[in-house]
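Hey, I'm writing a tutorial for new members on how sequence and structure tokens pair up, and I'd like a real worked example in the thread rather than a made-up one. If someone can provide the structure for the chain below, I'll link this post from the tutorial.
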Amino acid sequence: METNKFNGTNYNDWLRNLRIVLDFENQGYVLDKSLPAILPEGSSPEERLTFEKWHEDNRKVRSIILASMTNEIQKQYDRLEDVPSIMLRMKDVYAVPDWHIRYAAIKAFFGTKMTQGSSVHSHGVKMLSLVEKLEDLKAGLNNGTYIDVILQSLPLSYDPFIVNYNVNGLEKSIYELINMLIQYEATTHKSEPAVLVGEASTSKAKGKSARR
């Protein structure tokens, strides 16, 4: 959290990292679940344990949240003792709607172009990152569209590769496509030995495509 402090403009990324940290410590539930400040009379031993654990975890999580903010933003919330109250206020002020994030991700994916002479490996990694983000956001794009857009993002020097890909009716995953492009670059530009992209278990995207 130290390297990704909340600064007022990165709420969604900050919250995602916060949940990763808290889930590791089994404390993520505190973000969403409130408990009364005073234990009701007649509570069972189990309820007492739950109450005491929540308040202990609330204290720890509150400290993590405040420490992960810039000093100016921290001053807005340091008087609040209840973590869910802090999160609710932050959401009202800083949260970016999902539709806005999805629109920005789609725009970035369709708008990204590889410049002539740049590394196809770096370009491929960037496109893969955008695909994974779109999948997380359930953008609704199919595998063929991912392949189409990646091929269309290439400079003119890759036209022979695209023609060969289409003529042979190849159907590759995104990882396979990027590795083919890396090998093509190494062959045609006599580059250093290529570093291929490792295929993750989440690899889904396959499809035919054509430059339009």
